[in-house]
Amino acid sequence: METYMSIVIGVLFTIGTYLILSKTFLRIILGTSIIGHGVNLLMLTMGGLKKGGAPLLGFNESSLNDPLPQALLLTAIVINFATTALLLVLSYRAYKVLGTDDSEQLRDHVQQLKDSDDEQ
Amino acid sequence: MSYFYLVLATPFIFALLVPILYKKINPRVHTGWFVLLVPLVLFLYLLSYSAEVYERGAIYLSLPWIPSYDINLTVTIDGLSLIFSLLITGIGFLVVLYSIYYMSKLKEALHNFYVYILLFMGSMLGLVFSDNIFVLYVFWEVTSISSFLLIAYWFEREHSRTGALKSLLITIFGGFAMLAGFILTSIIADTYSIQEMIGKINVIQSHPFFIPAMVLILTGAFTKSAQFPFSIWLPDAMEAPTPISAYLHSATMVKAGIYLVARFTNIYGGVAEWFWLVTGVGFVTLLYGSINAVKQIDLKALLAYSTISQLGLIMCLLGLGSAALYFDAGNEGTVYAIAIFAALFHMVNHSTFKGSLFMLVGIIDHEIGTRDIRKLGGLLHVMPISFLIALTGSLAMAGLPPFNGFLSKELFFTSVLQAAEMPFFAMGTWGHILVAAAWIASVFTFVYCMIVVFKTFFGEQKTDKLKKQAHEAPIGMLIPPLILAGLVIAIFFYPDILSRYFLQPAWEAVLPSFAENPALQIEISQWHGMNREIIMTLGVVAAGIILYKTMKKWSNIYYHYPKVLTLNSIYELIVEEMEVLCLGITKRYMTGSVRDYLTYILGFIILIVGGSVLLLDGISFNMSGNSEVSFFELGLLIAIVITAFTVMFTKTRMASIIAVGGLGFLIVFIFVLFRAPDLALTQIVVETITTVLFLLCFYHLPKFKKEKTSASFKVTNVLISVGIGIVMTIVALSAYGNRLFEPISGFYKNSYEVAGAKNIVNAILVDFRGFDTMLEILVLSMAGLGVYTLIKLRLSRGKENEETK
Predict the structure, then answer these.
(1) Can you give the C-alpha Rg of chain A in angstroms?
(2) Which of B622, B654, B750, B761 to substitute to test the interface with A, most A CBs within 10 Å?
(3) Intra-chain end-to-end CA distance of chain B, in Å
């Protein structure tokens, strides 16, 4: 199972990276989101899968799954959410102000804005 | 921890206090009075150490700093470091005292000035005491930086800025070379401690890296001590306030290179390469400095060139003295060892007379408003005390009795004459050339000393050319140079006190293998009888007077030297070319496009992670521990892959957002299957909110455009993303397959007993790693604030307001 998981992780990273390298804001954000999923699965897999029951005491399980990656992941998921939200709003804002969702055109637009400021 | 470390820390601590104090007391009290305490106390404290070192020998202390890398604040307190530290604090005291009168408390930014000075003082002390070569290097660079700050102190002047930049570029270049030399040496000797290196001289001297390491270290020393051809920064450094020129650029910082050479003589000396490099560069510098000093019209520039020449003199003495190490400890070598003594002696003397001369020039500049020799003259009657200072300093520099310069100059001649008859190191006819060079340089030294005295103080007073009415300086400005001038005379009459308590231990520190040898002793006497040295000195005086008298006739030859070939124009050419080259290279890769930068970063991840995995044989798959695969799980994985590809290939925004949401929910199932209930719950909540957020923004963001991209753009993207994917798969497999140690999770298994929680994951989050979670909440709230402000923010732009209403 771990081997299959590793391959899926690789696929998620590939797609995430490809999206990050594109120009549209939305695609970039979706890319980070997918890479986030890849990281989560990577950490979970490294700890070993299905080694025992859920890390809850009192169920008389003979062995338990590793709780540490899960604790780390919990943090990661929440932080991932925070960054995604910030990125989204940032791109929304950038689009509102600059009128483009293309990261390549962004520079020219910023330059134009600066120039118009100078004129004023 | 020894109290001695306070010596190193005090200047830095005071440097922190000065700005606070400046705000409180300026302009009622001059900040300098407060700073003055530091060098005074340190000087007295270090004096007490010198008595101890004199009686019991060197002291070694160690304070762990980065012990895991074997980098510690190891301190060597021996004669050599003490003599330097006493110069640093002693001259430092006088210079601070002088600066109180020189720097106006109303006009100048004193807090900056004294912070830089203290920074310099502390790092210079650290430099001479530290035994660990990397700690030494750090202090070395801090002295370069504080020197830069001090030269650029009047940063509104363009000359100050270019001068500062020049000194920084050259000294830091040398510093890097020295660092490389240190690294090589540490590789050879397998230690970072200078003292331990001394024990491994045989290993070092027979290693193939020996010569490269030596040349690199010497480059550092030569740049710092303004040796030819790196000397060009020193004249430009004269843009600094005069107290700084007196302190850093004549008495202390420029002697750091001397210190380094003296310190490493014992390790690298005794071979022909060291001998000829140090001696040769020293001699060229000596000649270059003294000949160029004569043509200067700015008094300070004249002193700068004279400093260059005197540093060259000390350097070549160190080179000559290293010949002693050609022999094992014994009487044969002692003859040459005298040159080392002469170097140390002249270094102290130079600090005294050159310090007083610089202060004198400061006085002239301060009271008369110019340093231009053409505008000066006839000041004898106006400034009699200053004249005394000038006379003492200049005659000492020229090497005349009854001043200390005479004694060390005689020793210099002795050393050169002895070296000229040296039967080894392929001396041959070079010996005569060395003697001739030493003599010619001394003649020119004599000539510029005459210029300082006569052109400034005799002749007609040119009042019409001056802005200010000339008058004698305030007493506070005269005291420090008078003390130095007093020392100049006192050392001549009582050289043995200095020699026995300070120079002798330093001498032994440079040549420890000779230290047990009772022959390493010297009696300095004012009169040796009518020997060759005296005849040389008389010749210098005669030729010097003739040259000075006939200067108008021959000084024109200076203007025949082509300007293109001067060191300065070569330096400017190099800097210019470098700027063009660097700009060209930088523009090629700094495109300003985020995507390009991401490509670099990701490319490097592939190279470094993938490369190291390949090189270090990190790929080892171990599938034996794999858990079994159920049909349902396999289906889930396939679904995840399909969804992910949907995100990539879909053409509409809506579909891609939904696909990402779907992906998230599929991962929830993974968490459920793999026994992670908490994760599954969190993921459901987070994924729901994220999808909602995406949809909200979707309303505002424009439709996907067909990205106009070139084929190469797409190919790079695909290559990089596939590369990242493969690397991550390999990392995942290898990380799972290789267990270097047992998981540490066993620690948390007793969470019920320790934390009273049956859910271990929760216990870890809120109890074992509670601070982590708290900070995570902080991050979350910061992101929330960011989101809120970004949405609510109204920019002042009128057009923008209409849009968001």
Answers:
(1) 21
(2) B761
(3) 67
Answer whether B800 sits within 8 Å of A56, measured CB to CB. no
Going by pLDDT thresholds of 50, 70 and 90, the confidence category of residue B281 is very high
**Amino acid code (one letter) for B604:** F
Second-level CATH architecture of A2-50+63-119 = Orthogonal Bundle (1.10)
Structure confidence by residue, pLDDT tens digits, B631-659: 888 899 999 999 999 988 888 888 888 89
Tell me the residue type at B798. G
CB contact under 8 A, B675 and A81: no
| CA–CA distance, B258 with B350 (Å, rounded to integer) | 13
Torsion of CA B639, B693, A26, B608, to 10 degrees: -70
Helix (H, G, I), strand (E, B) or coil at B106: coil
CB contact under 8 A, A41 and B670: yes
Closest residue, chain A, to B701 (C-alpha): A92
Q: What's chain B's Rg over C-alpha atoms?
A: 35
pLDDT at B801 over 50: no
Of B697, B758, B765, the CB nearest to A74: B765
B418 neighbors B438 (Cβ within 8 angstroms) = no
- DSSP-assigned states of every residue in B696-714: HHHHHSPPPPPP---HHHH
Tokens for B403, please give them. 């001043």
B632 interaction partners in chain A (CB closer than 8 Å): none
B790 touches A90 (CB < 8 A): yes
**Domain boundaries of chain A, sorted by first residue:** 2-50+63-119
Distance CA A66, CA A51 (A): 8
Better-scored residue on pLDDT, B707 or B541 = B541
Give pTM, 2 decimals: 0.76
* Overall size of chain B counted in residues: 805
